[in-house]
Design a protein that fits this description.
heterodimer; A: mainly alpha; two-stranded antiparallel ribbon; 14 helices; globular; disordered C terminus; B: alpha+beta; 6-stranded mixed β-sheet; 5-stranded mixed β-sheet; about 40% helix
């Protein structure tokens, strides 16, 4: 049952005729993937700019007078929301999911190509609605990316009328678009794998994206309903999340609602969301490390089970974001326990990445550097998660800069390093050209060291007690002057990192024209996307025949072969691969 | 190779930074030292993993890196079941070592001692106030629909248990040393969070329900209360103070506070008596309280009673006008000295009856540019500059522009809003730099002149 006939529908694909159908209204998963990536990166640049505005204020208070508390909170909120949803989620699932799933599974396209196309355009609409909120009276919402009511829809918060409404509408549209794409990814993985591609032969990239998509399909509805309910509270005077309260001196119309209900719904989405970003990163980085260390991933089966375990557990840890939210404190026992249990499969993944390097033949290519950088930052961010997940330890650190440092390390810097490594890795397949090595190395070093310089000290400011989401500390009893100097230094590091990303974007564009020709398989990788007849692959991916898979995705360094890798689709009778039986216990 | 060296340097640098950086927990002032212990324990366990795994990774990179021209193959051994199970087992031990003490401390947190005193902390955009249960030990009923300028706590006047409740309108709470206290947390509007870093424990205030936490203050002193749950534009300026007193000092403080019954029983000011007393004020502020720029006396007509009362008391108590940099305010402070509270109430009662007349415009600026400058100000002072009792912000529309300009400067330069008891003034001082001196301020005032 590893494939079905649906996988080979080449006869039904109408090769696009015009520029418009080929590059704009395209149904080719590869074009859609690049559309997703380009859009996500464009809006990501906006989010980076917002973070620099925030850092200017925090590093140099009373210097930039165009930044005031209201627009500062708008910068904070939009930076967070864009990065988490519109950049990372869209890039990993819409971008890499689209590009890699059909190619790595040996399919001609997604199972529902038309829906796939619509998914992108709906996503673009969501982005445009989000951007529109910058230009409406009152500006975008300043409620924080968590959008907690009551404050999100009351006049004490910037953008409490149009801003928050557009934010909620944009989220609703995003979820609609994502659902179209997400169903596609799941069905394609389950139904359109080529002959021989059993689940336990799939590359971990596909596993990670597949599991993340399932999480997203289950988690986004919680966000969807909370967005709808909040919009109703705001415009129709319902009271889902609104108790009887006062707003700046006036009684509101609301009565009986529960702000905590929103938080539960939000984090029921929000925590799986962390893994929606993390699992694709886990999967992709496994493939980067394995390919460039010329060694099979260490403990493939365990890696798959760990992805499944993390995915399932991620639905029972959400209230660790709410230890000091005022929920029944007895919940703390349960959620601290589940949260620390999730550390075990996560730690195992880290061990296995490191153990893949061990006894490998480690090529320190650009993708490998980013992968190593990821392991380092992920260890750091994962370990600080053990502070915040353990209820008692969380309490003094909650709502301080320690939290900001933690989640930026673990779900900002770490996934972004994977994104960059993955782009350096697959760019040759997408474009037929290599990215520039020297610019890539400059980008890597500035990003790794720069981000660490930003976030390492930030943990300690949090331990001191510096709160997050403060426009200015001003005079605060317990805060010494050294904090101000550190904040200035952090801001400078942030600017350096932001500039480094411009180097990356320049490299992306420059290499399109001037990059060295890559050939079909520059990394000598085993997985199917590197075995396409053309590079970049054409619409339909494969020639007249679909590939047939004979082994797992990690046949690196197997003894008895002429080369140190054997592609998944090389038949066993091929004399270059006599010792194929070594992979027998896998798949 | 460079990456391995950098990894080693990052690990060593992280450890060095951990040891040498000047920032660590504030000195603890509560019974929750066990929380610090769990943090320290977690640092040891995770620190060991951080150093160990990263150094092993650096080792693997150095030892197994590919060298040009050297033909070598990676080891091919897909399954190391035993090693993986060992790693799972060891990780589980580490997790249990951190989790078990954490849960043990949490069990104490969820169990409030029976003899704990009860204090209610009330949060609102963007200030704190407090309520103590009084002699009966029980807090009276409150209701959001009853909150008003006359009853900011929303006390139910029909609940006899509330009559002896002690209402502390200012953002300063005193707590007795070494007595366990259960803090009930109530919000009047949005989410807030009661945080005193030296106490370690914190908890959100959730509108519609009452949340709680408990602690025992163990060190006398003054500690800053911070709101740590985003609550709108003024979030970062929502500060308060906890003062931990010995028993005698606490008793003195408590005796100086008023109960709900006492506040209700206070007679209202008499405008007729106040009219006579106002004669003194009229010399500078004008017979109709219209103000007099030549004498530096602002217009008073049109100001709400709650604002006038607070400022008069601030002047009298030296909370305002005590700064040597503000001679004009010192003058006013001296004038209020001989007046008793009843007289002040009467004067206020009279002034609020005076008609609000337009003031001449003395400042020129670009009102349109000023409108966007005003965005932040409007959150407290009202979208039309009308002021708000709930944010404790006076009206700005219809005020004398020269007076507003001077006050903004006094706030910026630290002559106003720096007295430790001036909680609302200090909030304005924190925000006074949002509009810088010079042209931006002129634009702002030009805009305010259009709002009358």
């Amino acid at each position: 049952m590893s494939y079905v006939a649906i996988a080979d529908q080449h006869a039904h694909l109408h090769d696009p005729q015009t520029f418009i159908t080929k590059y704009v209204w395209s149904q080719d998963h590869k074009v859609i993937a690049i559309q997703y990536m380009a859009t996500a990166m464009a809006i990501g640049v906006v989010a980076i700019a917002l973070s620099i505005l925030m850092r200017l204020q925090l590093g140099f208070p009373d210097t930039f007078h165009f930044i005031n508390p209201s627009n500062y909170y708008q910068f904070v909120s939009m930076h967070g929301m864009i990065m988490v949803i519109y950049l990372l989620t869209a890039l990993f699932l819409g971008g890499f999911g689209n590009y890699l799933i059909p190619l790595m599974c040996g399919a001609r396209d997604m199972v529902f190509p038309y829906l796939n196309m619509v998914s992108y355009w709906v996503y673009l609409l969501a982005v445009l609605v989000l951007v529109a909120s910058f230009f409406v009276p009152g500006g975008p919402t300043g409620a924080g990316w968590t959008l907690y009511p009551p404050q999100a829809i009351l006049e004490g918060t910037p953008g409490a009328d149009l801003g928050i409404t557009l934010m909620l509408v944009s989220l609703i549209i995003f979820i609609v678009g994502f659902t179209m794409g997400g169903l596609n990814y799941v069905v394609t993985v389950l139904q359109a794998r080529c002959r021989g591609m059993t689940l336990m032969r799939m590359p971990l990239s596909v596993w990670g994206i597949f599991m993340a998509t399932i999480l997203a399909l289950l988690a986004f509805p919680a966000l969807l309903v909370s967005a709808i309910m909040m919009a109703l509270d705001n415009h129709l005077g319902t009271s889902f999340f609104m108790p009887a309260i006062m707003s700046l001196g006036d009684q509101t119309v609301h009565k009986g609602g529960s702000p905590l209900l929103f938080q539960h719904l939000f984090w029921f989405f929000g925590h799986p969301e962390v893994y929606i970003v993390a699992l694709p990163a886990f999967g992709i980085v496994s493939d980067l490390i394995s390919t460039h260390a010329r060694r099979h991933i260490f403990g493939y089966r365990m890696m798959v089970w760990a992805i499944l375990a993390i995915g399932i557990l991620s639905f029972v840890v959400w209230a660790h974001h709410m230890y000091v939210s005022g929920m029944n404190p007895y919940f703390g026992f349960f959620f601290a326990t589940t949260t620390l249990i999730i550390a075990i499969p996560t730690a195992l993944k880290v061990y296995n990445w490191v153990l893949t390097l061990w006894r490998g033949d480690v090529h320190l290519t650009l993708p490998m550097l980013f992968a190593i950088g990821f392991v380092f930052t992920f260890i750091n961010g994962g370990l600080t998660g053990l502070f915040l997940g353990n209820v008692t330890v969380d309490v003094p650190l909650s709502d301080t800069l320690f939290v900001v440092a933690h989640f930026h390390m673990v779900m900002g810097v770490s996934p972004v390093l994977v994104v960059c490594g993955a782009i350096y890795h697959w760019y040759p397949k997408m474009t037929g050209r290599m990215m520039d090595e020297s610019l890539g190395r400059l980008h890597f070093w500035l990003t790794l060291i720069g981000t660490y310089a930003i976030f390492l000290p930030m943990h300690y400011l949090g331990i001191l007690g510096v709160p997050r989401r403060y426009f200015a500390l001003g005079d605060t009893y317990f805060v010494p002057d050294s904090v101000e100097s550190m904040n200035a230094a952090i801001s400078i590091a942030a600017i350096v990192v932001a500039v480094a990303q411009l180097v990356f974007i320049f490299n992306l564009i420059w290499s399109l024209r001037y990059g060295k020709p890559a050939g079909p398989n520059p990394w000598r990788a085993t997985t199917l996307e590197w075995q396409t007849p053309e590079t970049p692959p054409r619409h339909g991916n494969w020639g007249p025949e679909l590939p047939v898979v004979y082994r797992w995705a990690y046949e690196y360094g197997a003894p008895g072969n002429k080369e140190d890798f054997v592609p998944q689709n090389r038949p066993p009778d091929d004399h270059t691969a006599v010792a194929i039986g070594h992979g027998r216990n896998i798949g | 190779m460079a990456i391995a060296i950098v990894l080693i340097l990052l690990v060593l640098g992280t450890v060095a930074f951990h040891v040498l950086n000047p920032w660590w927990f504030t000195p603890i002032a509560s019974n929750w030292g066990t929380m610090d212990d769990t943090v320290n324990l977690t640092f040891w366990v995770t620190g060991a993993v951080f150093v160990g795994v990263n150094l092993f990774m650096a080792y693997a990179i150095v030892r197994y890196r590919h060298r040009k021209g050297v033909e070598r193959r990676a080891e091919y051994e897909p399954e190391y079941r035993k090693l993986e199970w060992w790693l799972i087992g060891l990780t589980s031990v580490g997790v249990i070592a951190m989790l078990a003490p954490g849960l043990a401390v949490w069990a104490k947190f969820v169990t409030v001692p029976d003899d704990a005193d009860v204090v209610e902390a009330v949060g609102q955009q963007w200030s704190w106030s407090f309520r103590l249960p009084g002699a009966d030990g029980v807090l009276g009923a409150v209701d959001a629909s009853l909150m008003s300028v006359a009853n900011p706590f929303g006390m139910d006047p029909n609940d006899p248990r509330g009559r002896d409740d002690v209402l502390v309108p200012d953002a300063e709470l005193h707590l007795p040393l070494d007595r366990p206290v259960k803090l009930l947390l109530r919000s009047k509007d949005v989410l807030h969070d009661f945080t005193v870093p030296e106490f370690r424990v914190k908890m959100d205030l959730v509108p519609g329900m009452v949340t709680f936490m408990w602690l025992t203050p163990t060190k006398p002193g003054q500690y800053e209360i911070l709101c740590e749950e985003l609550c709108g534009t003024g979030h970062f300026a929502m500060r308060g103070r906890v003062v931990v007193d010995d028993a005698a000092a606490y008793a003195t403080w408590l005796a100086g506070q008023q109960t709900f019954a006492q506040i209700q029983a206070r007679p209202a000011g008499d405008p007729v008596v106040g009219a006579t007393a106002y004669a003194v004020c009229a010399a500078c502020h004008g017979a109709n309280a219209e103000g007099n720029q030549a004498l530096n006396a602002p217009k008073l007509a049109g100001l709400p009673g709650w604002y006038l009362t607070r400022q008069l008391h601030n002047f009298k108590q030296g909370v305002r006008g005590g700064s040597p940099g503000d001679a004009i305010a010192s003058q006013m402070a001296a004038i209020t000295q001989p007046l008793d509270a009843a007289t002040l109430d009467n004067v206020v009662a009279y002034v609020v009856t005076l008609p609000d007349v337009a003031t001449p415009t003395t400042v020129r600026g670009d009102a349109e540019a000023g409108a966007s400058r005003y965005t932040t100000c409007g959150y407290c002072h009202g979208a039309r500059g009308q002021g708000s009792w709930s944010t404790n912000a006076p009206p700005l529309a219809g005020r004398s522009d020269w007076y507003l300009a001077r006050q903004l400067n006094q706030f910026r330069q630290g002559h106003r809003g720096r007295h430790p008891q001036d909680f609302h003034g200090s909030q304005m001082a924190r925000l006074s730099n949002v509009v810088p001196d010079g042209e931006p301020t002129a634009d702002l005032l030009a805009y305010l002149n259009t709002l009358r």
